[in-house]
Here is the input.
Amino acid sequence: MADLTKLTASGLAGKIASGEATAVEVTEAHLARIDAVDEKVHAFLHVDREGALAQARAVDDKRARGEKLGPLAGVPLALKDIFTTKGVPTTVGSKILEGWIPPYDATLVTRLKAADVVILGKTNMDEFAMGSSTENSAFGPTGNPWDLTRIPGGSGGGSSASLASFQAPLAIGTDTGGSIRQPAAVTGTVGVKPTYGGVSRYGMVAFSSSLDQGGPCARTVLDAALLHEAIAGHDPLDSTSIDAPVPPVVEAARNGSVRGMRVGVVKEFAGEGYQAGVMQRFNESVELLRELGAEVVELSCPSFDKALAAYYLIAPSECSSNLARFDGLRYGLRTGDDGSRSAEDVTALTRAAGFGPEVKRRIMLGTYALSSGYYDAYYGSAQKVRTLISRDFQRAFEQVDVLVSPTTPTTAFPIGERVDDPMAMYLADLCTIPSNLAGNAAMSLPCGLAPEDGLPVGLQIVAPAMADDRLYKVGAAVEAAFIDKWGHPLLEEAPSL
Amino acid sequence: MTVTELVSYEDALAAYDPVMGLEVHVELGTKTKMFCGCSTALGAEANAQTCPTCLGLPGSLPVVNATGVESAIKIGLALNCEIAEWCRFARKNYFYPDMPKNFQTSQYDEPIAFNGYLDVEIDGGEVFRVEIERAHMEEDTGKSTHVGGATGRIHGASHSLLDYNRAGIPLIEIVTKPIVGAGERAPEVAKAYVAELRELIKALGVSEARMEMGQMRCDVNLSLRPQGADKFGTRSETKNVNSLRSVERAARFEIQRQAAVLGGGGTVIQETRHFHEEDGSTTPGRVKEEAEDYRYFPEPDLVPVAPSREWVEKLRAGLPELPRVRRNRLREEWGISAHEMRSVLNAGAIDLITATIDAGADAASARKWWMGELARRANEDGVELAALPITPAQVARVCALVAEGSLNDKLARQVIEGVLAGEGDPDAVVAARGLKVVSDEGALGAAVDEAIAGNAAIADKIRGGKVAAAGALVGAVMKATRGQADAARVRELILEKLGVQG
Here is the structure.
């Protein structure tokens, strides 16, 4: 039999549905791949072998009983360790939650289970999703399958690396400032940040509530669409979830086309700090869009220059409040409780021991930004910038159907290169952050390898809120054209590990 | 502990003008909590009524309880407030173990209701208008029990137990504007305001507002300024004053204490104070080294609350008759004085009397039993009138039996005693105890003859015109009939038989 780990999710689902392969065989093949390569990659924090096989058996039983199977039934998935899983550890990449076993499933997990998707385990991430390299994980970094000495992006580096190293055909990420798209870009995979409110946040450990959004990661646009459809939709347990039909993403992915569409190129996403090879592949992508029949329009979004600054006030502010609950009293780590100390002291010791430096930095930033006397100057001003950014997008979308840009200014940088330079690290999210602030939908998909380092470059597509289907329509057309041009999917050029 | 120096109330008021601010927290009687589906029922085992949301588990999210919002709007409307067209929740950030998220979901600068007033009546019938600043929604905290210390406070305790059943129960916080101009009646106004607010909350049906159960809690903020001054003085904040009487006492104590401080040339410290039921005093709470910064910001996990005007108007139209209006109406219907009505109100007897009248009793009898015999019993047993094991329908039946002449007052009291003792309905008690007015004229006549024969000297006095002496013969007849005779009829018979005009 062909190597099951090399197939797409839709391909695997087809084999399982037709009986060509069982879900158990598919799961076992992926577990074997994890055993073979994850020691090198370190994509997973926890592999739920038993749970995955039990789910796979249930799918095979369903088929044996003649029940109809869903479009992703039996397909394995790698879940970012930020979603609660009943009975399975959830650490959010932090020592402070080490050993915690959640008593409940996130809504997204419930939906994956209902779709008979097989959850292989939980993937590595920057602690509390704060980072762009996965180096902030309390449990050690993850390697980029293209070059294990380089970062796989972050915060969802475990999910992107699991896809690029064929340990899973599907993965889930979360995107607060680019944590789905930037890892997808640097690993040559596809990642989508749905419209804010498109996928339930219930059971997704909060970093910055008004920005966090879970979404699909895959190796193809169609697979991402199938996963998107499985996890999206209104959830009464999340009052910020949108109560409207899910945009027709799968249909769009099956009917890729840009003919007659207007595509905007944002002037501000270029210049200093952008790697030459990244700009080269991006410019070729714009050319390709023209060839495919799109009208390309250059436009300006002047407020985007302030996006990073606004983001680093809003996200830390919300995080300082969201992370207050980790006090060592009810769950997770507890440090210094020797019977002589007060609850206050135990909380302080627990937080000192349990949080890593980046998390502490952001808690302090946010605590400061929300302090009385500073609130208006910091949090208040940042909210105003947020409004301006939304207006820039709104004006842009009056002229064009989608916007395109590089996903991230550079290809994967070496592990350790930016750990002591937070500003350099923050710049990795320059192009992705505006969409989080505005709450619209965005995708990253591979657009080639940078000539100077042979590493993947990502193309970002941005669509208005609730027009997620446009990402897939454009993405599918671009993906097909590139595969035509290259003669094969980009990931075939990745080292075999 | 040092004794707090006080000046006399009269001297304090001669020199200073009190300014008060009252903050009242009301626990709503919704079936479920403010942001999750957990039950709010009292008395469950510790932490049995919790879920990921009210425990603040990682990943959990709040969803607003629509009934909680509706209750808040009703309270706002009843307090003559404007209702926000759009408002948000906010996070109040501070660390405390009984607060699972280490922030309280509350409202900050966008309350659901604002700019209202409540008219309260004080003794003598004077109406005082208390202006309302705002009423906002928030969630309650869990409950800490400090174990091992002498005082039950955290100081000296070896450990604490946490029960999160209360965490997330909806609260409405109602804040007055500064209450000025009440002068010496400030403590009385404070008490009357809380009492009126309690009646209002109960009438709206949004909470039982039982202060002794913590369903309604009051903070009394008070400052003094020299008579004639415009500027407010520094206030103290006396927390958790949890009975009507305590509200009055706390205000009074603070007036006397602050007057002593100011009169001695000192300055009042802005601080939290504890109220002590046993002696009516207040003492300073923990001194904070720096002012707490709650770092309020809009709650990003909740969408704004935007009650439509149609909904607000529908709720306004559905408001019940408000307590003061209702009291005035009932006072006229019952034909009693304002003073008598206040006694009825203070006894918590309005609804009981109304229900008794609805069950067929006349107003005077219904009021007589509830405010007399039953109030005495409640007082003796140390319970609320409503907590006595007798229903308005049962009281109405007793009234009916008296009205038809089957019982006299003395027997009626025995029937009530029987009902309270759990012997069943009034008719069952009458039957079991054999309580019945002797109305058989023949039997009564024989008893009267016997009494006259046995008390010849007295009978002669009556014949001689000393009608007042008849009482002794009535007593003898009542004794002989074991109290079951109609005393008035007995007197008539005695006078008749002795040929005297009554």
